[in-house]
């Protein structure tokens, strides 16, 4: 069905519904035969006059586009072709968690607890990144996903985990907002506070992750009653049967994690998705089994074996069943029409066969003798098919997948096709996000991943060798930070440098700006006292506030011990990167650099990882929070991504961090991942001098206000002189509705745009 849509070549429709259609498409570039496969979601033209739906569609793209994390589906583009709005997003070649569970039941090879924990831990990493993300001014965006369901957790055939669909996410910078008392999300995966339409925060998503963890490790639905009323009662009362009551073999440590994630009392629940991730990483580490992308990929290929390629055709999607639940004892004993029985899933990671085996029929459950030691639920593991139905949302779904193409291995026609409920239906494309004709042998990437995993050591890298070096400053009395870690003594004194390496040393003195130098790790590296820089002019004062999680950490700022958190430091010099270190008994220390913005309160909450946390024995959580956004981050010469991003870096390693952005001065930092659990690098890149260009904007309707660089303009048409760059622009129409777009200003030239807002939709055209 090859067809051109703007700069995209449509390959095949992979989903459609009341609000949008989703296509597998190829983005065609202008140079060197550039091509990129994407999932293209196009809004139905008959909804273009529904302002509320248009705003939701735009919000979905805007929120996700600003998130750059390996565990979140990337959004590449938001645009319009003629009258059709579209979102171009990452094409994930794999399946969603709901389909994985169903296929596991069908084949008697349900996902192992270790694999389930890995999937939820990685999803938690992506959600924590979203929860803690900031805007271009460094202010919290307060994102809450609100739709953490099996359909929105994707697993690629290469074993990567992705969180999808921020269509109903709560965020400070949404164009549209949920009304008081209005619920957003799917009923069976709501937290109690979300169900009660109360104010929600990141802990609501933690609760939803707890539901997924429960269902995938206990093999039964948690909040699914025989009626919506019964389901609502279960959610409102947060009635959770402990896993060990249903599965006597269930690990006690994993049960503790599940039950804490599902605490109705917010204060007793994990306070962040990072806490839940850490707990799961610790549990996985204790299992002494490697559970990574290569192992998960092998399982995916095992339960979704390659089938002969079928001719491409569009098939209707019939009404689909709910993910199959293992009936509790009272229901399992009830008469069923030809119930299908399955063998309990193996608990260890499956060993992949030389080639993927064909699907096998469901095996009958083994007969277990009834005894006080054996749960009746295990003795009657039957699938309650009579009550299976699609999982409805709290409100009517705006989009349901109704048609797919039967192409390649992973099309689910003939297996009982699913109706994927989703407010914006992003999960629709994800279910079918797979290519035809994949080789039955392992891909080269999987082979390489296996080889790398086999080479990795279970123990962390050994601490580096240090050499004691005497350092002096003029004037004396400076505090010292070496490779991102605060030293105890003031100058002059002896300090430990990494032997044989270039070390970054920063001197902090009350009457001088920070002075930075590079020193070789050898005795006598400093030949004479370092003269401290002088302020070119009196610095502007700022306010720095540090809180710790858990509370009570001892705060050090620029090497000086201030006392227990929270600490508020007023009059601190703004425009400079100040060093913060927080220590607490039985916890890994936190360290980081925070550049203080002038004349505002710079408040940060730092996380302290418990010393007993196994996952931090060989890794350190590093956050690269660089402004302007999308600044490139390189680590030891390799591009790591663009800010804001988080990474788990090897312990006891020197990280040479480079920060760069077009039209900005680059920066470099050296960080030693030693004796810390978490590190944050928050820096502002100084803008380079740029030539100016002219921006001309004509808007309609009359009376609209245009915001550029946070400045408002009522003149129409508007003419501004601006430095060359890309600019976010907000157009506020007379009815008070705001619309965002982006414009380019080129040096020494006029850049003209005509902006027209009709029926709540912004159209922008360059008139150069």
TrEMBL record:
Ranges of biased composition (kind: Low complexity): 313-346, 358-372
Keywords for the protein's UniProt record, in alphabetical order: ATP-binding, Kinase, Nucleotide-binding, Transferase
Electron transport found in the keyword field: no
Protein's name according to its UniProt entry: Uncharacterized protein
SUPFAM superfamilies linked to this entry: Protein kinase-like (PK-like) (SSF56112)
UniProt entry tagged with the keyword Chaperone: no
Xref: PROSITE patterns: PROTEIN_KINASE_ATP, PROTEIN_KINASE_DOM, PROTEIN_KINASE_TYR
Transmembrane segments: none
Coiled coil: none
Region feature Disordered, mapped onto this chain: 313-381
InterPro entries: Kinase-like_dom_sf (IPR011009), PEGA (IPR013229), Prot_kinase_dom (IPR000719), Protein_kinase_ATP_BS (IPR017441), Tyr_kinase_AS (IPR008266)
GO molecular function annotations of the record: ATP binding; protein serine/threonine kinase activity
Bias type Pro residues, positions: 347-357
A Pfam family annotated for this UniProt entry: Pkinase
